[in-house]
Design a protein that fits this description.
By secondary structure, the protein is of the alpha+beta class. It is built from seven helices and twelve strands.
Length: 278
């Protein structure tokens, strides 16, 4: 995989505020243990969500805007926001990090070519390359996985693996005994201008899945996940897919209550997201 030198953090990030947001009080050296613990704390504290797209507010990737939204305002976001924030945190701590581009293959056949509109991170520690991805919706990685091996790699939630395909790799997760494709990538760096363009399409195109669906996800420290897809909320154990709770959302009032109680996302009482009457 071709790599390019990563730029330094664009601006200073408020690390104490970020650590408070994710409930982290551990060491701060650029080690694997710190990466692992930060990644788990991030994905169990900051929800994945596309709600600003549905509210027609747009998604700004300026560092201050992302930090304001995800840290200060205690909102969530999708891959460009989540992984951009995590990139700045890791760089500020001295990690060697490269933002990489990927195609999301979840729910798609191998014959399809999805747009390359996903951002994740390569983190190099003591000669080993790790994948960190805190912005993958209901399958955000709760542990780093190695980028240079193809055997199964357990995480606190699903077991993962990388499969060589053509000139790239497909990242897979084992769900209920079956391997499913999650993302596909070649190791190409995703520069800020590429992220800006992909984010513009993702957040504004009527053909983007983010403009057509309500999607909110959050990993839980106990190995389960909350997932809201349109009107269906489910709580599943990730290791075997066992259903712990499910509910069909029938009113905007109940949706706002669920967002607040399950995800910590609070909106004004009359907020409407414009889909399914909600």
């Amino acid at each position: 995989m071709q790599r390019f030198p990563s730029p330094p953090p664009e601006r200073t990030i408020n690390l104490p505020a970020y650590f408070s947001r994710i409930g982290y009080a551990g060491p701060r050296e650029p080690s694997f243990a710190v990466l692992r613990d930060l990644q788990l704390a991030h994905v169990t504290s900051i929800p994945f969500e596309n709600l600003d797209v549905l509210l027609k507010r747009g998604v700004c990737l300026e560092p201050e805007a992302v930090e304001q939204k995800l840290v200060t305002d205690r909102r969530g976001g999708y891959c460009f926001e989540q992984n951009s924030l995590f990139l700045r945190v890791l760089q500020s701590l001295g990690f060697s990090v490269t933002p990489l581009a990927a195609r999301v293959r979840l729910g798609r056949s191998r014959e399809e070519i999805p747009p390359r509109t996903h951002l994740f991170l390569r983190v190099d520690i003591a000669g080993t390359a790790w994948m960190a991805d805190v912005g993958l919706g209901g399958l955000s990685l709760t542990s780093p996985i190695r980028l240079d091996v193809f055997e199964e790699q357990p995480t606190l939630h699903e077991t993962r693996r990388l499969v060589p395909v053509g000139r790239g790799l497909i990242h897979q997760a084992r769900m209920g005994g079956e391997w499913i494709d999650v993302t596909e990538f070649t190791g190409e760096e995703m520069f800020p201008i590429d992220r800006e363009l992909a984010n513009w399409w993702t957040s504004t195109s009527p053909n983007s899945k983010f403009a057509q669906n309500i999607m909110v996800g959050l990993a839980r420290p106990d190995g389960s996940r909350f997932a809201l897809n349109n009107t269906e909320f489910v709580h599943r154990r990730a290791s075997d897919g066992a259903l712990l709770a499910n509910e069909t959302i029938t009113s905007s009032e109940r949706l706002l209550d669920l967002l607040a109680t399950r995800y910590g996302l609070r909106f004004p009482e009359q907020t409407k997201f414009g889909l399914f009457g909600l």
